[in-house]
Amino acid sequence: MTAREVNFDGLVGPTHNYAGLSHGNVASMSHRGAVSNPREAALQGLAKMKFLADLGVPQAVLPPHERPAIETLRRLGFTGHDDAAVLHAAARQAPALLAACSSASSMWVANAATVTPSADTADGRVHFTPANLTAKFHRSIEPPQTARTLRAIFRDPARFVVHEPITGAQAMGDEGAANHTRFAPGHGRRGLHLFVYGHRALEAGAEPARSRKFPSRQSFEASAAIRRLHLIADQSAVFAQQHPEAIDAGVFHNDVISVGNENVFLYHERAFVRTPEVIADLERAYAALHRNSALIPLMVPANRVPLADAVNSYLFNSQLVTTSRGRMALIAPTNCAEIPSVKTFIRNLLARGRTPLREVHYFDLKQSMRNGGGPACLRLRVVLTKTELAALPPRILLSGATYAALVTWVKKHYRDRLATADLADPQLLQETRRALDELTALLGLGSIYPFQTTGA
Ligand code: SUG
Q1: Is 372 near ligand 1, meaning CB less than 6 Å away?
Q2: Which side of the chain, N or C, has fewer Cβ within a 10 Å radius?
Q3: Angle at which helices 400-413 and 38-54 pack, to 10 degrees?
Q4: 20: Cβ below 6 Å to ligand 1?
């Protein structure tokens, strides 16, 4: 079955700001209090999407969430005769809570959900589970909107199933596709799934100590539940624990320390506990699924690229994509070209010419990077057959016309400067709602936001 991998990129929302909300994410922590530029952030993301579309990689868009999240503030007891009064009450009584309810973090859609293509599921449908993101309050409020948005896009129940997010506290901590990699000889072939977790919450395994400095976000129990829910065969899944040392170095998701595409796997030596065994497990499971294809593991040794350089450059948060010419390209953040060990590594990797990896393209995504979000964080991969693709609302796909309309839309609605104090501005809420209302019409999505259905 021919199928293509569609990259759904999260559009950066109008409240993009630096509130330092993510303990364990070194970029977010170190940029706390900086002034952001939401307009530039959104345009940087759109430029990356346009480039990939032009490269022949199917590209689609996921709309941002409504922020500040008035509905959440009301649920937490802030009242007032209108939404501006609710905002005012929150700003006065709990400014940190208002900041958490204003984050544009839904842009990092690698954390929106885990996705399993129809080639891998027992019922032949594409499965989605919105991530519960229980590890961080500001992200834990995302799942209901994520579910609404996915259901508006993947509407046909005969082809798609959008599950409820897994419930449970941190024992069921699920951060979505950022901790999941799929391998196959081609995107439409049967896939092998690598689920990476930080800790076991309920079942104590024979695993070494957990990270000490920074928390682990993904639990084994959540990853195992996703495999069951998505009807993935037992022999098509490998589970691996993230190295606690990596988490403590700032690797809060596995997509900060490894990236795969088709049969290629680029990973850091310290990515996993017992990395050589994980690779051997993957090779064995892959060989059992596919006789005429072999996994190509590309290890990055710690003496060539130390963990700190991997985290600062976000090398592994590059996108590894198949271009229309059947070659692979690395879409890397410009930070990779600024760190000598990483720059040299990429140059040598391409020069070797023994892998399908032939091109590197650097992108300036610094607005998002300052919050710990690189190229791969900004996209959710959805492998779709032709008929599945035809079942989507057509304007969700990035054509030249949609791109131009989105650039105009950003320039019309977004501010070029936002400080944390501005989050209390009732004008910002109005601007955001006007922008999102226009966006849902532009993308042909109907009403998906609470303010559109309650008439607020
Ligand atoms: O969850 N940053 C996000 C970055 C997510 C990156 N995603 C992947 N690696 N897939 C996070 O830590 C920072 C927001 C702030 O500080 O305002 C933030 O939420």
Answers
A1: yes
A2: N
A3: 180
A4: yes
